[in-house]
Prior knowledge:
The complex is a heterodimer.
Chain A: H1 2-10, H2 12-31, H3 37-62, H4 70-84, H5 90-116, H6 121-139, H7 149-155, H8 159-166, H9 181-198, H10 200-210, H11 212-217, H12 222-248, H13 255-271, H14 283-302, H15 318-332
Chain B: H1 7-30, H2 39-64, H3 72-86, H4 88-112, H5 117-137, H6 147-153, E1 156-157, E2 160-161, H7 162-180, H8 182-192, H9 194-199, H10 204-230, H11 242-251, H12 263-282, H13 287-312
Antiparallel strand pairs in B: 1-2
Helix pairs in contact in B: 1-12, 1-13, 2-7, 2-10, 2-11, 2-12, 3-4, 3-5, 3-10, 4-5, 4-10, 6-10, 7-8, 8-10, 11-12
Amino acid sequence: MKTLRLILTQNLGLILAVVLFVALYSIYVALHPNWGLNVVLQNGNETLALIFVGMAQTMAVLVGGLDLSVGPLMTLTNCFGSHVMAGTGGSVVAGVVACLALGSACGCLNGCIIVYGRIQPIIATLATGAIYIGLALLLRPTPGGAIDGDLAWAFTNDINELGMTYGWWGDLGLFGKIPAQPIFLALVVVLVWAPFKRSATGRGAYAIGSNAHAAYMSGVRIDRSKIAAFTLAGFFAACAGVYLTMQMGSGNADAPQAAEYTLRSIATVVIGGTSLYGGSGGVIGTIFGALVLRSISFIFRVVPGDSTFGFVASPLLQPFFEGLILLFAVSLGAARVFRVRNRLSLFT
Amino acid sequence: MSLRIEPPILIGLVFIALILATGTAYTMVTQGTATFISPPYLLQQLHFGAFLGITAAGMMMVILLGHIDLSVPWTLAASAMVGTAVGGVAGDFTALGVGLAVGLINGIGVAVLRVPSMIFTLGVNTVLLGLMVMLTGGFAPQNAATPLMTFLGSLRTYGVPHSVVVWALVSASLIFVLNRTPLGRYMYAIGNEEAAAYLSGVRTRLVIIAAFMICSLCAAVAGLCLAGYSARAFQAMGDQYLLPSIAAVVLGGTNILGGQGKYSGTVVGVVLIVLLQSMLSVMQMDEAYRQMIYGAVIILMLLIYSRGRAQTA
């Protein structure tokens, strides 16, 4: 019983995000005129890139920093991918690997500048973000490039289409109707995030975020953990870029879009229950944070215009409500301010 | 008061000299004239720089506290847009009022509700964006600059742009506040250790709210000038001022974690960024190279700072 309570209190943020998502998505499903797996597929396509960028931001936030280059890095890998992922067969696989390697290398560069240059993460990544956008513009001065249509179709669809496009497997029935995006996400989480979290380096990253001095005194290899965290942030941002390339089929060095993704990523991290001061939370919460954020905009799309709440369906009001909900979500955490007995404890 | 120049400011000045020298060398070679150091050209740069300078001045107040204000872009745009929509002298006051109101909300969120400033101001920015989309969505409100905006933003007296005078006035008042008033001392104290400031009897919540109100007021003033300069207020007019204003403050030697920094450094940072951007556009550099050089210069300068700090520490 006590352990259950402990688990609950330690994951309060995550649980809140899951509950919020389930509630919001249920409203969406209830309002949608013909909701089905194909709608889920479409939702997944619109959400996966944001989830990956949010996961990248989570890594930086865990070690007590902020990464303003996640959006630009996604754009850079998108532009790079539109060159190297063209073609068919093995060259595409090599292209995807090259994209992920580029992202990880850029993330590692961020980490090295932060650790060895002793520059605050937010400022260092502000500068490297400008460099990455510059590189992206160099690769794609105008939007363009075309990756293989089969590839773009197969990897942004359900399991059936993935198999049938390449003749790997036939119709798998109901199982095959499952959208492919959750599977990609699960693969990344299981193969990359879970091992990292369990490793000494990963635990070190949590320790740094919670108290860098104490972590140093306990023999945590601070430099290594920090660089690893930022490298992983680069890797996740590259995942977002690769997925975006498959989804759009082309590359676009869109700086405003990059900035929007960066800002949204901070919101997903916070809604997902990771503390902005570092040391607690994780990418699982962020996944639900991104889902919550996207569910909100999905709902606005399906609210019937002639109902009592029809006025919220106006596209003009969407940004306003999104902002209000974000403010509301982050202010929920403020409840503890009114409970504390000693105001001194607020400052830590 | 000592007259010793802080190392970051010195490095900033050296970089400014370097940029001027490079720009002049370039124009000498390509056009045979020293356009880059001619007074009219420099005044023109100061005119552009004033908008960034006023925004960065406000940004510095919150960074000194160890906070940040990401709502600056849409505070700037919202003040100008609401101001022009109301029109006339009433519009000018409304614009300043919008700034103060946004600052108050930000301050309450950060100081009283204790939401991290990064995320709270981000939310406020989105809400302001939404409100402005609503304002301009259904119908087209008046967006022509009021006479005062034109006076502040685009007119000159004896060749001196009025925006530069506004920037100087804002700077003078903030230097006074920072160095000569208890409020300024409290701001440095809170940036260093909020708990210590609180235990010393400083009403920290009021100080934080005041700093956010100064920041948003500066953004509103910059919005007035910018609307005058472009003769109208428009959406997203403030978007290009957020990251440069943070960069200017940090390049000027203010610690992003708060508690340390001199106002003169921020001025140096603003001039540096404006000159850098203008040199790159004079040299007709591609946007791609411009962004990369811009980022590289910021990293290079900060690397030099941190080396200097490590040696003295």
